[in-house]
Amino acid sequence: MNSFFSHFFSYHTPTIISGPCSAETEEQVMETAIQLAQTQKVHILRAGIWKPRTKPGSFEGVGSIGLTWLQRAKKETGLKTAVEVASPVHVELALKHEVDVLWIGARTTANPFAVQEIANSLKKVDVIVLVKNPVNPDINLWEGGIERIAKAGINKLGAIHRGFSTYGNSDFRNPPQWQIPIELKQHLPHIPLFCDPSHICGKTDSLLQIAQKALDLNFNGLMIESHINPGKAWSDAQQQITPNALSTLISHLVIREYNPALHNKEAELIKLREKINMLDNELFDILGKRMQTIIELGIYKKQNNIKILQPERWEEVVKICMEEGLSNGLSKEFVSLILSAIHIESINKQSSVMNKEELKKLL
Ligand code: PEP
Ligand code: MN
Question: Which of 12, 206, 233, 289 can pair with 237 through a Cys bridge, CB separation 3.0 to 4.6 Å?
């Protein structure tokens, strides 16, 4: 592992990738690179050269001319460079222009044919490859993309979490669904994981909060879009920040310890974790008792020929629990999530009782 790649594994210095959504002009790329290098907080300069736009007609990237600008920026600032690749031709051109990091975009990861073609073009190549999550919340597709690249012999391999598309209103452009990157980290603990708060947020005001959360979840680095004049950006104008603002954002990030060594704080940590374990025990005890009662209710319903689903009763349960939950400081979203999980399990339990399996055991 060379020293540059080992950056990814340091919990104390998260690797920062930044730069414009798109390379627009040579001046814009150079000026962004110079300002980012001056912050001394950025390791890799990113810029989209070929842009996978959702609809035709919007700016689709400057193409390979942009690679010569990045090559110049690398030479003059010392920053490593990163571009998105979506085909073997992109890979070939990027490597020809000494690009250090190739990333596979969310729309491409969603297409195994395209990922496999890229993987085939990477055989015997020594380059860093980062795989963004697919647009849809499918962890297997994400892991599959990573696996295809790994099988091509790439061992400097990482993942980027950029959120998942959604339909309708959301506070996020691409809601983070944190459980998916957390699970990816559990399955692939040695793959460095980046967070891209820019494409998660779609705007600038929550970037810091998302970046901080990612670091607190053991992410190894961040990819944040920056532009010398964000309002005038040719793509993703609402989510880009100036290199200066990026520098401020990074200085506000708190780097917390991953696994505290033995020191006096640890006793308190152990005590709090024991308390959590006890509460979790109680929680599952109570859930078990609830389900036992649900089974008794199922027997009653079966004997009296009553349907499982009684919407008015469920509305009443939701109302009572929501009030209780909110008064205990829980969020509405959390209470709804818990209640629907409980409801599904209760329905399943009752259904199996009424289909006799549980009944046989109990009677
Ligand atoms: C980008 O990084 O500019 C981009 C297009 O990202 P994504 O693939 O996450 O949409
Ligand atoms: Mn973008």
Answer: 233
